[in-house]
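User: Can you write out an input/output pair for a complex, sequences first and structure second?

Assistant: Here is one pair. Inputs:
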Amino acid sequence: MMLPPSHPDQATKWENVILPPTKDLHKIDVYRQGGGYGALKKALAMKPEEVIEEVKRSNLRGRGGACFPTGLKWSFMPKAGTKAKYLCVNGDESEPGTFKDRQIFEFNPHLLIEGTLIACWAMGITAAYIYIRGEYGKWIRMLERALEDAYSNRLVGENILDSGFTTQIYIHKGAGAYICGEESSLMNSIEGDRGYPRVKPPFPAQVGLWGCPTTINNVETIANVPVIIERGAAWYAGVGSPKHPGPLLVGVSGHVNQPGVYEMPTGVPLLEIIHKWSGGVPGHKGIKAVIPGGSSTMVLRGEALEGVRMDADSLKAAGSSVGTAGLIVMDEDTDLIAVITRIAKFYYHESCGQCTPCREGTGWLWKLLTRFEAGEARMSDVALLMDVANNIEGNTICALGDAAAWPVQSMLRQFRDEFERRTVDRPDDAPVSA
Amino acid sequence: MLNENNLKRVEELKRRYPTTQALTLPVLWMVQEQEGYVSEASMQEVAELLNVTFAHVLGVVTFYTMFHTKPVGRHHIEVCTNVSCMLRGSEKIMSHLEHRLGVKCGETTPDKKVTLNETECLGACGYAPMLAIGEAYHEHLTPDKVDRLLEGLS
Ligand SMILES: Cc1cc2nc3c(=O)[nH]c(=O)nc-3n(C[C@H](O)[C@H](O)[C@H](O)COP(=O)(O)O)c2cc1C
Ligand code: SF4
Ligand code: FES
């Protein structure tokens, strides 16, 4: 028997809609008995523009990291034209601290398939590619199985539910490259090429896959679509934080007693997520720092978490971002220099090498940080580290450069003392700046 | 190179994409599943099959970390050492494995049974520390659990 992770008692009440605790929900019969594919039927009875309008009104924002309004993105797709149009569903899920899309493949794959079909109908798309990271072999097979069932129930393919609408869904397996989660790199990867990001503009809605109009959405984003159609945009827009509403899959990792993925409305206080949903910090230790939304988001000090909520605006105001809602918790004994060195190594390893500031800069960040880790850095290296990070930020083709710079910049701003303490030439009597 | 069954799959896949180049990754996966790795000779054959250049195929194979250009040990153990796993003791798991296998990270045991590597985040951060043996994930690791895993490898 498979069940999605359950959560202990928490202050915010929530009944899961993306990962409901229904036994065997991955089976098509169980999914349909619970009303599954009803939203598709409803959507097919609406005009495509009405579906886009409904998604706009729901205020759904992308769950892939950038929080872009989904309805608006869909409305960029040209209505007329003879060219094919494509949907790419992004299941590359490689951002450290992120492990939520995997739950959808495992526990509710038909919700993803249904959402994909509704998105295709709304944008007049006849082929969708679900891109899944190569390491997720087990989850690829799970989704393949669900897709075969959907095909044999005539829910995908020709003349879906006798509506006259035809669309195909294909799964494309990646082969190990974080950068392929970046949308233009993902398209190159589907085209059978190396995953180099493309220079923008042109944007994918004009020139995407094989030069045709294309929309790219995250797996969780698409899984929210049937919920919006079924329950209505007004209901959805009223869940959680008004400017970034809806259910959110929060992945909690690091120093908590019950790490895992929890579904909750947006806007739950981080401290509630840590202490109530995830069982608190082992040994009742204090929290030194958290990374709120996956390794690319800015680090926050433990003392600064009071009142900070898991949504786009609250985290922005706190100096970070919601990213993929992958919350990494670090207790008071954590060696943050080791943490940031490991994160920097990741970006160095994953840089595709197209732009000099990213290719060279990520290497420099990592090299400099290993000096701090070994206690061999000089005081002047603190400024040099910031300088290198600043020179990457904003100077690259894709956002991987920024993603590499932000964690380092924020760690330096928030925990400068930790860096200074690791230098060889800090005068013993010099006060450590806070 | 590709067996009958896989050649049939290639024909089916051609219907899914408007170009044959798009089959590069799926076909390389088939080669690797069949042969264990992607040799230069296979790359040449893939190029001919898909009507793309050898340089294209080579470029793709070397870009993606999951394609191997050399045979790996029968069991490929990859330990995630990224941040969430690190916070929950991936270093201890790695050194335990190095000790038990008698090889360093990045090496293969002399009997070619096991290759040990570190890897980037595999999307199991909440179940850390973790490792993968081929496609199988092993999560919530302890040294004891690692010992039992090693005993189970044939
Ligand atoms: C380096 C890099 C890696 C990314 N990885 C992912 C990923 O694994 N999954 C994902 O959905 N989006 C990822 N993104 C964001 C995508 O480019 C894109 O914004 C997203 O898929 C859009 O979906 P959404 O609007 O539904 O959020 C990544 C971006 C960058 C710059
Ligand atoms: S920023 Fe980095 S990853 Fe992105 S295109 Fe440039 S070199 Fe490649
Ligand atoms: S950090 Fe190890 S699986 Fe994500």
